[in-house]
């Protein structure tokens, strides 16, 4: 009852990389569970620093009932200046708590969990919103970091295999490294310094650290935009599209592009529904407009993917138990 385990990042990464198709299924199922009321997902809490306005640490508490029965919290830091020093931007841990007793049962390195669930959610959206696939088309990735790399891998898992990838990043070495990564995996890819060329692709993925909008040109009908980094698009661009969110109340906060759109017009009429609505057949995508998917990122996804990683790591003998972690195990 009082076991506490630690799962290191290499074990987490290995298990998730080996089972990407299952991670996609878990994320899709969790979206449906969230829609069905099987979760509690409070607002994320942002710890910000006046002297470092581009940096933050975010707490994402959540409960997932369904067949998981775990609560927990992801504590994830985003420090963009790490990139210039050759370090990943994000670092994170995930604490899982037993729902019956409340006791924490495990701590997992969670940057890998966070990137996997983010990429899987983009892949689930791409499959649902472009069910005909991407054969013969172009996918542009704006931002060349870890999240972007994982999104490309997960798009491949769900059968979204375009004719070519375009990669754009204001940090040219990062963009070229992602293009090289894709090329090494047998995919046609090239770096483009031209943002407009990237924005013309059939599918445009935003995975940047932008703090405010810089994309002001509208997208055309038929384009799919995976607005993963949430703050790249001017509100007018959002208002000209059919908008699908992961969770309406969560996404319309913190000056995301959809939140700016709401502030501009004073209503939420531009929101077409949630991804779960699309998955459940309750919302049909409007093909006469571009489609923008904006995922704020739900803590319940981290719980679901983290619980899966913990089970797989246990089975592989990759967890480390901490004897005596709890100072007292009896009330008397």
Describe the structure.
The structure is a single chain. Helix 1 (9-18) packs across helix 11 (299-315). The chain has 332 residues and is α/β, with parallel strands linked by helices. The relative contact order is 0.18. The radius of gyration is 20 Å and the shape is globular. It is built from eleven helices and 16 strands. A hairpin with a 2-residue loop joins strand 3 (45-49) and strand 4 (52-64). It has helices at 9-18, 20-35, 111-129, 146-157, 172-184, 195-199, 235-239, 248-251, 257-265, 275-279, 299-315; strands spanning 5-7, 39-40, 45-49, 52-64, 70-78, 90-98, 104-109, 138-142, 164-168, 189-191, 203-206, 224-227, 242-245, 271-274, 291-294, 320-321. The strands form two sheets. Strands 1, 2, 3, 4, 5, 6, 7 and 16 form an eight-stranded mixed beta sheet that branches.
Shape category: globular
Helicity range = 25-40%
Oligomeric state, counting identical vs distinct chains: single chain
Secondary-structure element string: EHHEEEEEEHEHEHEHEEHEHHEHEHE
Proportion of beta-strand residues? 15-25%
* Average residue-wise pLDDT: 95
Q: Main β-sheet, in a few words?
A: 8 strands, mixed
* Total DSSP helices: 11
Span between termini: 17 Å
């Amino acid at each position: 009852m009082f076991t506490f385990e630690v799962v290191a990042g290499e074990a987490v990464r290995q298990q998730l990389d080996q089972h990407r198709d299952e991670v996609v299924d878990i994320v899709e199922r969790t979206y449906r569970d969230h829609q069905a009321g099987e979760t509690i997902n409070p607002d994320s809490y942002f710890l910000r620093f006046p002297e470092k306005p581009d940096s933050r640490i975010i707490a994402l508490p959540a409960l997932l009932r369904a067949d998981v029965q775990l609560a927990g919290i992801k504590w994830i830091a985003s420090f963009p200046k790490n990139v210039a020093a050759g370090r990943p931007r994000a670092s994170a841990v995930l604490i899982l708590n037993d729902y019956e007793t409340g006791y924490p049962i495990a701590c997992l390195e969670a940057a890998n969990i966070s990137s996997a669930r983010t990429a899987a959610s983009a892949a689930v959206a791409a499959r649902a919103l472009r069910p005909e696939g991407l054969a013969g088309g172009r996918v542009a990735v704006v931002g060349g970091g870890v999240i972007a790399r994982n999104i490309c891998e997960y798009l491949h898992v769900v059968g979204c295999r375009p004719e070519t990838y375009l990669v754009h990043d204001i940090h040219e070495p990062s963009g070229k490294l992602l293009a090289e990564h894709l090329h090494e995996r047998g995919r046609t890819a090239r770096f483009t310094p031209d943002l407009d060329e990237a924005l013309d692709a059939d599918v445009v993925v935003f995975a940047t650290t932008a703090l405010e909008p810089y994309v002001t040109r509208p997208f055309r009908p038929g384009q799919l935009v995976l607005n993963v980094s949430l703050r790249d698009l001017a509100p007018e661009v959002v208002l000209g599209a059919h908008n699908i969110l992961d969770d309406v109340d969560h996404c319309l906060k913190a000056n995301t592009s959809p939140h700016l759109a709401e502030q501009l017009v004073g209503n939420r009429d531009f929101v077409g529904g949630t991804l779960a609505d699309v998955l459940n057949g309750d919302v049909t995508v409007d093909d006469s407009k571009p489609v923008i998917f904006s995922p704020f990122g739900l803590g319940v996804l981290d719980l679901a993917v983290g619980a899966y990683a913990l089970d797989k790591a246990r089975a592989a003998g990759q967890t480390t138990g901490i004897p005596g972690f709890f100072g007292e195990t009896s009330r008397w």
